[in-house]
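Re: iron/sulfur cluster structure - here you go.
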Amino acid sequence: MSSKKDIRSLNEDDLKEILISNSFKSFRANQIFHWIWKKSVKSFDEMSNLPENLLKFLNDNFVINFIKVHRMQKSSDGTIKNAIKLFDGYIVECVLIPTNDRITACVSSQVGCSLNCKFCATAKLKRMRNLNPDEIYDQVVLINQQGIEHFDKPLTNIVFMGMGEPLMNYNNVLKSIEKITCKSGLGMSPKRIVVSTSGVPKIIKKIADQGVKFKLAVSLHSAINEKRTSIMPFNEKMSLSELEESLRYWYDKTKKIITYEYVVWKGINDTDDDISALVKLCKKIPSKVNLIQYNNIDDPNFIQAPMNILNKYIKTLDSNKIKATIRRSRGQDIDAACGQLANKL
Ligand code: SF4
């Protein structure tokens, strides 16, 4: 690991001060930032409009800790999974999901996860640390580049649905979104970003107060409190009623509807009572439902319910005027689908 400072941890004013105190012109900071954030260069030597003495100064004092692709796998359906090596050796995963009209990046926000959702492969990895904003931003830049290289299309959408719980690292997630959406970064619309949380009520209220513009999705999986606790044990401390209250608050502040992500498992949440509870919850707060096809993680307790049960969910939600879709699983053959990210190399 290098002892030099990562130049990307500085803001432009800090860099200007450093340059001036070392007898360089302050406008060079703007040029350097353009190379780093707009062009995503990985070394100072690529900054072709800087003088030799400034390049030497940068190389002597700073590094650019751009993430490194440790391994890339391509699925038969075109999905690309990247195992990313961070500057301290930890590995996280990010996924490119191509569809007819979209290139979507599924990005990670933590190394491992501290929540222990029973159905999730990432839960088996201990949470080691939060990703910093640049490490999140870099995953987005990487997938944008891969979209252009492999599909001739730039990135169109981002979902925070990779490894980790984004709201347990919300400061850094918000900073990365600022960078993704600002003109000096990728300039993407926040409407194309979905932050998917397992539901951290306090933080949901906090970000609603901050007037964030991205969309919110909640991994729900059951609208019955005890059942949800058995699937997602942290629900015992942050109960469904608390979550509901925070989502009401979110909607009242942002006027953005909530998407519930919902997997239906055989013998777990496949009864009429489960469907009724979901309908009841959806009627309380404007929302829609994504029924996600589950991907086996070698746990016999969690088996995808058959299609007739999913259709029953869809029919009942539909007849109650609640929008619901079934989301096809992508990248299953390379363990890149939802709930499968677990650094299996
Ligand atoms: S589903 Fe999300 S929050 Fe739950 S353990 Fe997996 S990564 Fe963490």
